[in-house]
Amino acid sequence: MNVNDSFEMRRRGLEEAFFREKDQHLIQKMRQELESLDEKRKLAHVSGLINDQVLADLVHVGVRAETLAAVGLVPLVEVAWCDGAVESEERDAVLNAAVKQGVLADSPSHALLKQWLEERPDPKVIAAWRDYVRALAHTLPKESVANMRDTFMDRVNQVAAAAGGFLGIATVSQKERAKIEDLSKAWDG
After folding, report:
1. Any residues with CB less than 8 A from the CB of 177 and at least 6 apart, and which?
2. Which one, of 165, 37, 46, lies nearest residue 103 by Cα?
3. Alpha-carbon dihedral angle through residues 111, 41, 38, 103, given to the nearest 10 degrees
4. Which residues contact 166 (CB under 8 A, 6 or more apart)?
5. Rounded to an integer, what distance in angstroms lies between the CA atom of residue 179 and that of residue 90?
6. 17-35, pLDDT tens digit by residue?
7. What angle separates helix 52-60 from helix 142-163, to the nearest 10 degrees?
8. At what angle do helices 123-139 and 65-81 cross, to 10 degrees?
9. pTM for the whole thing?
10. For the segment 76-125, what is each residue's pLDDT rounded down to a tens digit?
């Protein structure tokens, strides 16, 4: 083997290694993009959020679908209980909101939610929710936080209006309004 042949073999080896590494990098990048799309789809499913940037921001900071589902459900339960009892209309509204968020009727999450609607959850649950939402508010861009707050607080208002009203006109009690305002402030960070 002459010097030129040896040099040529090393050149090819270098090129093959370079392109193999580059291909592996591109394949890894493609896998990450697919995983991100899958996680965004899960987050959208459990939260009802449709803003692609908000979903991308959530994936970027490591929010999981299971956690986001709880973020959407805890305040619904809290508002349902703020008058001291959960009315049947409020219970139905909370369970319907949960189904819209992807909580299946035979799932452990649904069973826990039903339990919370029968027996008020420990105050530590709402405290943990507040801590998590505040942390999200400090981590995500302001536009994403505002979008999430609006989406989740709309559902909270629907639950509050479900039990009130006369002749089909929904009303929200003063206690519910105060609780909704309090919950909304948690998103301010």
Report:
1. 160
2. 46
3. 10
4. none
5. 15
6. 666 665 666 666 666 665 6
7. 110
8. 130
9. 0.69
10. 899 999 889 998 888 998 898 888 777 778 877 788 889 899 999 888 88
